[in-house]
UniProtKB/TrEMBL annotation:
Gene: LOC111465354
MF (Gene Ontology): aldose 1-epimerase activity; carbohydrate binding
Active site: H172, E304
Membership in a protein family: Belongs to the aldose epimerase family.
Any single GO BP term: glucose metabolic process
Catalytic reactions of this protein: alpha-D-glucose = beta-D-glucose
Designated name of the protein: Aldose 1-epimerase
Keywords: Carbohydrate metabolism, Isomerase
Keyword Isomerase in record: yes
UniProt pathway annotation: Carbohydrate metabolism; hexose metabolism
Protein's organism: Cucurbita maxima (Pumpkin)
């Protein structure tokens, strides 16, 4: 297990087309460079200029893996096997993304670092029984692999040691396919393979309803510009979509297709998760990022595939409980192309 007092490190996966810089601090994607339609390279993820700045807590979850449970748990409370648990309330009144020191703030142990054509790295972390209030110890691994010249894959696994627990990991990259410093993402178009979404209360926790997107500003079943109806949804999109209508490919469902018109860059995302939190960077404000770029509201968009938020308190949502002897498994496939 990684010593939490050590310095975080950087690792590069580079196959000549995709160049990804990763850190074992939170399994974070620090930068990801891909060509546009004219072959021009740009870094298409938001991030900070040094690992120290991440450790000082200045990153609004840029690029990291969040857990043990992503998203909000209402009032940080739940009951499992007859016992009530209270989690760290780091975003009052709720617990968000694993608490004060979630998986994004931990140093993971790096292993199996392979460079070249099929570059890959595995990060490991052991979360102790009671960490941030969660029951039971869990061993977690996350492997990033460049599986083809234009594809990156992320495989996340977690195994409870001897007690049932709740597990729901998410990758929290903020994408801007025009380049991280190119302004806001309102001119990107997106298609989401979701006929339903889960509306939220005033604290951004799902009410428990599963509602059709049809005839609402939440409908992205056909390609649509993100900015076209964002003003009808308050601060912007920060909602869980139910992935119920995507094509399947080797066990993964089509989640989203994102396109930036001037660069022609396209990102297709595939996953086996039941939902995706579509977040339009609503709370980003004056963050000094890489190369001193200043990121404002909507500077990036997140597509956090995951189980439904607050699922542990919503019996009608797919369960996020993992029993001892069981395994949590979550894959994401990021395909880059140009149009
Ligand atoms: C990378 O993977 C491909 C497909 O599995 C294989 O054909 C190729 O030999 C691998 N390259 C290296 C350098 O291992
Ligand atoms: C948005 O994209 C369209 C289509 O490529 C383009 O004509 C327009 O200038 C873009 N607007 C902004 C604000 O970038």
């Amino acid at each position: 297990m990684a010593d939490q007092t050590q310095k975080p490190e950087l690792f590069e996966l580079n196959n000549g087309t995709i160049q990804v810089l990763l850190s074992n601090l939170g399994c974070t994607i620090i930068s990801l460079v891909v060509p546009d339609k004219d072959g021009k390279l740009a870094d298409v993820v938001l991030g900070l200029d040094s690992l120290d700045l991440y450790q000082e807590g200045l990153s609004p979850y840029f690029g990291c893996i969040v857990g043990r449970v992503a998203n909000r748990i209402k009032d940080g409370k739940f009951t499992l096997d007859g016992q009530e648990y209270s989690l760290s309330i780091n975003r009052p009144p709720n617990s968000l993304h694993g608490g004060h020191q979630g998986f994004d703030k931990k140093l993971w142990e790096a292993s199996n670092y392979i460079r070249g054509e099929n570059a890959s790295i595995t990060f490991k972390y052991r979360s102790a029984d009671g960490e941030e209030g969660y029951p039971g110890a869990v061993s977690v691994t996350a492997t990033y692999t460049l599986t083809s010249s234009t594809t990156m894959r992320l495989d996340m696994e977690a195994i409870p040691e001897n007690k049932a627990t709740i597990i729901n990991l998410a990758q929290h990259t903020y994408w801007n396919l025009g380049g991280h410093s190119s302004g806001n993402i309102l001119n990107h178009s997106i298609q989401l393979w979701a006929n339903h979404f889960t509306p939220v209360d005033e604290n951004t926790v799902p009410t428990g309803e599963i509602v059709p997107v049809k005839d609402t500003p939440f409908d992205f079943t056909a390609e649509k510009t993100i900015g076209s109806s964002i003003n009808e949804v308050g601060m912007g999109y920060d909602h869980n979509y139910v992935l119920d209508c995507g094509d399947e490919k080797s066990g993964l469902k089509h989640v989203a297709k994102v396109k930036e018109p001037s660069s022609g860059r396209v990102l297709d995302l595939w996953s086996n998760a039941p939902g995706v939190q579509f977040y339009t960077g609503n709370y980003v404000k004056d963050v000094v990022g890489k190369e001193r770029a200043v990121y404002g509201k909507h500077a990036g968009l997140c597509l956090e595939t995951q189980g439904f938020p607050n699922a542990v308190n919503q019996p009608n949502f797919p369960s996020v409980v993992v029993q001892p002897g069981g395994k949590y498994q979550h894959t994401m496939l990021f395909e880059f192309s140009v149009e």
